[in-house]
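Deviation from plan, reported transparently: S-adenosylmethionine complex.
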Amino acid sequence: MTPARPNSSFAPGSVALVGAGPGDADLLTLRAIQRLQAAEVVLYDDLAGEDFMSFVAPEAELVAVGKRAGHPSPRQDEVSRLLVAYARSGKRVVRLKAGDPAVFARSDEELRAVRDAGIAVEIVPGITTATAAAAALGASLTKRGVARRVQLVTGHDVDGRLPDDLDIAALADPAATTCIYMGKATFPALVERLLAHGLAPSTPAAIVESLGSPETRVIQGTIVDIAAQLASDRPQGACMILYGMALAPR
Ligand SMILES: C[S@@+](CC[C@H](N)C(=O)[O-])C[C@H]1O[C@@H](n2cnc3c(N)ncnc32)[C@H](O)[C@@H]1O
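Because the crystal trials were delayed, the predicted structure below was used instead.
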């Protein structure tokens, strides 16, 4: 395998925010593998699958910083503090994040903390869940003349509720494909607002659950079907919810 970049760019005492993609180890980028191989410390999320650890040197330190069932996750400022502390001790530090580090991953806070400490940091992009979900559906998120815009949206606010300041007109745009992260609890409430704003109840929609794992499950229907499914029997795994006319079967 040809290295994507020389390892020398990952200097001792620096941090790499690495996107792990949706969970399948073979959807890691070459650069992500290279950073994992060179890492002396890896701070990782739950959603970044355990398979990735096979790329990490046996002597490297592994630090779980995700939300494990029944265990409180470290606060975001504690994660930032750890990144700075490990890098200051001269280690090559990988912060492994599910999907892409630039999408709903609180990377801005970690970047600020590390840069404020004068530590070099790079971002290694990963495949975000929205595009991995499109692949699982065998669908394109864009469609000429039908869906000219793709929007990535969070379905929950800091308190777990549907954000008050969502742009409902944009979310009800029939010419867009909408990909909702962290939205399984609030999607039924969102659909009520979309319907009130005029989005057709027949708009195609899908849930893709637990991508990159043997439990991957796809549920397809209309926005109304998907909202009813989530209201009555909410899946346990992480869910990407997508809707828009680009998802119509033909
Ligand atoms: C904190 S966000 C992280 C997003 C991530 N940075 C990305 O680019 O995909 C977590 C949300 O991403 C989605 N997600 C992450 N991993 C997933 C997976 N394996 N299967 C389905 N959805 C997933 C879910 O909507 C989940 O609530």
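Residues 22-23, 47, 97-100, 103-105, 128-129, 181-182, 208, 210-212, 238-240 surround S-adenosylmethionine (CB under 6 Å). We consider this an acceptable substitute for the interim report.
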